[in-house]
Design a protein that fits this description.
Blueprint lengths: L1 H7 L24 H11 L10 H24 L4 H19 L13 H19 L1 H6 L6 H21 L2 H15 L15 H8 L9 H22 L2 H13 L5 H17 L2 H18 L4 H13 L11 H9 L3 H30 L12 H8 L3 H12 L4 H15 L10 H35 L1 H13 L3 H16 L4 H11 L1 H6 L4 H14 L8 H10 L3 H11 L6 H7 L11 H23 L8 H15 L3 H36 L1
Helix pairs in contact: 2-13, 2-26, 3-4, 3-10, 3-20, 4-5, 4-10, 4-20, 5-7, 7-8, 7-9, 7-20, 8-20, 10-15, 10-19, 10-20, 11-12, 11-17, 12-13, 12-14, 12-16, 13-14, 13-26, 14-26, 14-27, 15-23, 15-25, 16-29, 18-19, 20-23, 21-22, 22-23, 22-25, 23-25, 25-28, 26-27, 29-30, 29-31, 30-31
């Protein structure tokens, strides 16, 4: 697999074969590309498209290219009226969806079915009707006619089917439940009864005004979210992925447990611009997982490291997946504030993973790779370091509070300007065109999921069911903030099992985040709580898709890999509770600076102790009661209270002193044992 090997070793160097450790159970450091593609198809719906004929492929590429060019044009010269912008974007996305993605995964090797041509044509017609009749619809002041109702009904069915195919059957089913409730709401008993019933009323609210299908989630997807997807597509095409992985190998490859640390750094850096956990697992895990196994890590642990590292990329600024863009739009907060809020939680998440890797490496006696087998950091910077310029420019513009669309546009232009500076990153016109095509295809899942979730938001605003569900949560928790947080966490995790983070966040932002705000939690903090658990749900058994994809590469038991990832990310389940009680941890001005700094440092100590307790190793293996003590001390440090912080610090001091004495006793007794043996 020569092409894959070039990603990790510079052209001037020859990668020497990595020596096979005695306790390794694998024979190679690479995954067969056919197997990797098969795993990607199984665990990433976006990569399970059907085989297309030349004619259909040309049509799909044309629509994909049009999406990208349309987004760049409107970002540069001004957007169309909201509904027209969204209708034209959804038109292209739905046509691509039904031509590329089959109704059932087993049909991916077959051609386009006759009914998919019909669905694509119907999607084109419904969206084009909305685009052409925008002014007429606007002048009806939210009162629909028979044609409007028919178009809404057909388009809603098509969006639900597209969501089932490409995004998640669970999201489609949840949306159906909401739509049925809106239609039969006047027949519901008790407090769930609503006057909003019938197709006409639903069409008036969810089609005639930008509130349902063409609501703000689709608007976010049709503007800056898709621009950032295009930005990341261009970066990947010109070699940003190669640069990230070369740098990760060069910087950490020689450290203790180097291959696993490479996986953490490279997957985190790659995940922040891709935002797709399962696809990221396959993209970077095809190299890192076999390498970890070859160096002596157990298969389950190797898969868990890659799953955790790939999932947490959505917590790392500047891109943070797509959900944070929607959060900025939804709560009216500058995106730079959300980036700032993500710094400490993201750092603590990856610190947990990194410490677990380091402790497991020392526990197993695993060391890094020889220098001659690693790429040169200097060579990587010289050949591809200039690719950091667009990335840095985007961060700078967002911090300076330029619009997100403008920041992404500048990033795209800079990629096209700096890529030709070096031979290694230079793209031909065909490569640029294919990057635009690929970026257009990747926006399809965002478009259809946002249109689907838009209907859920439309139902909640039409019927008021969000307030009803929120009141039920408050009744169950009896107004207790802690119990409310537990219920919100459970809802986020259950909904996040197998569903994209975007969908989970939007539903939670509509139903549960307002409940937290009612209890006095700042708006950004409440929404970030829901967003955080929507991400962690990806690695929470029993449905942990990134873990299962990693297990397929590692050849390990999927359930064992999922639980290993859950164990590795255990401190992450406590972090959202901390920033609820100490909002200053999100660096958003809440609380006092002194409390925020103390909270961050005690959380770092707590994460370290939890990792020690989970792995059962400090300077040497710990006995059971010390492991329990370390876990208790870690939880005490993470809880934002002065008394518990002091208890946690006392545990750290006790373990440090006791283990140091134990090591001294072992070292002093060793010579005497040797003497006795002689």
């Amino acid at each position: 697999m020569e092409k894959k090997r070039k990603i990790f070793f510079s052209e001037k160097e020859t990668a020497a074969p990595i020596p096979e450790p005695a306790n390794s159970g694998t024979g190679g450091t690479e995954i067969d590309p056919d197997k990797a593609d098969e795993i990607l198809r199984e665990y990433s719906r976006e990569d399970n498209g059907r085989t297309l004929t030349k004619t259909v492929s040309f049509i799909v590429n044309a629509f994909s290219l049009f999406i990208s060019l349309f987004l760049v044009y409107t970002a540069a010269f001004g957007q169309l009226p909201a509904v027209r912008q969204r209708a034209l974007y959804l038109l292209c996305a739905m046509v691509i969806l039904f031509l590329v993605y089959p109704a059932f995964s087993k049909s991916s090797s077959k051609g386009v079915a006759w009914y998919d041509y019909l669905f694509a044509a119907a999607s084109f017609g419904c969206c084009f009707y909305t685009f052409i009749n925008y002014e007429a619809i606007l002048l009806r002041y939210g009162i629909s006619n028979t044609t409007d109702q028919f178009v809404f009904f057909v388009l809603a069915i098509l969006v639900l089917e597209g969501t089932r195919r490409l995004v998640s059957p669970a999201l489609s089913l949840v949306t159906v439940v909401f739509l049925v409730y809106a239609y039969f709401g006047n027949y519901m008993p008790g407090m769930f009864q609503t006057k909003a019933g019938g197709l006409a009323r639903m069409t008036d609210h969810m089609f005639m005004i930008p509130e349902g299908i063409f609501g703000s989630p689709l608007g976010t997807a049709a503007t800056y979210v898709s621009l950032f997807v295009l930005f990341s597509s261009l970066l990947q095409e010109c070699g940003m992925g190669d640069f990230i992985q070369d740098m990760a190998l060069g910087l950490t490859g020689r450290a203790t447990g180097g291959p696993a640390k490479v996986a953490v750094i490279s997957s985190a850096a790659f995940g922040t611009i891709s935002g797709a956990a399962a696809a990221n697992v396959v993209g970077t895990g095809t190299f890192t997982i076999p390498l970890m196994k070859k160096c002596g890590y157990p298969p389950e642990f190797s898969g868990a490291v890659e799953a955790c590292a790939s999932t947490g990329g959505q917590l790392i600024p500047p891109v943070m997946g797509a959900a944070c863009f929607i959060m900025a739009e939804y709560i009216g907060v500058p995106y730079s504030n959300i980036m700032l809020a993500g710094l400490v939680p993201g750092f603590l998440y990856y610190m947990s993973v990194f410490l677990t890797v380091d402790l497991r490496s020392k526990k197993l006696g695993l060391f890094g790779l020889p220098k001659e087998q690693l790429p040169s950091v200097k060579a990587a910077l010289q050949s591809r370091g200039h690719l950091m310029i667009p990335f840095a420019a985007v961060i700078y513009l967002i911090i300076r509070q330029y619009t997100i669309s403008f920041s992404a546009l500048v990033g795209i232009i800079l990629v096209l300007l700096v890529a030709p500076l070096k031979k290694e990153t230079r793209m031909s016109l065909r490569q640029i065109a294919m990057a635009f095509v690929d970026g257009g295809k990747k926006t399809v899942s965002f478009g259809v999921s946002c249109a689907c979730v838009g209907m859920i938001i439309g139902v909640t605003t039409l019927t008021g069911v969000g307030n009803v569900l929120g009141n039920y949560i408050l009744d169950i928790s009896r107004g207790s903030l802690f119990l409310t947080l537990i219920l919100v966490m459970i809802m986020s995790i259950i909904m996040g099992m197998g569903m994209p983070t975007v969908a989970v966040y939007i539903v939670q932002a509509t139903v549960t985040a307002p409940v937290l705000v009612q209890l006095g939690i700042p708006t950004l903090t409440a929404h970030f709580f829901c967003f955080y658990f929507g991400i962690i749900a990806c690695i929470t058994p029993p449905v942990a898709v990134p873990s299962y994809a990693a297990a397929a590469i590692a050849g390990s038991n999927p359930s064992a890999t999922g639980w290993a990832a859950f164990k590795m990310a255990m401190p992450a389940f406590l972090i959202p509770f901390v920033f609820i009680y100490e909002p200053g941890m999100l660096l958003n001005g809440g609380g006092t600076p002194v409390n925020a700094v103390l909270c961050i440092f005690t959380c770092i100590a707590g994460v370290y102790l939890v990792a020690v307790g989970m792995e059962g190793f400090l300077a040497r293996p710990l006995c059971r009661w010390k492991r329990i003590l370390a876990l208790a001390g870690g939880f005490a440090c993470i809880v934002p209270e002065r008394v518990t912080d002091l208890l946690g610090v006392a545990v750290i001091l006790f373990l440090a002193v006791s283990e140091r004495r134990a090591l001294k006793q072992e070292s002093s007794s060793a010579p005497s044992k040797n003497t006795e043996g002689k």
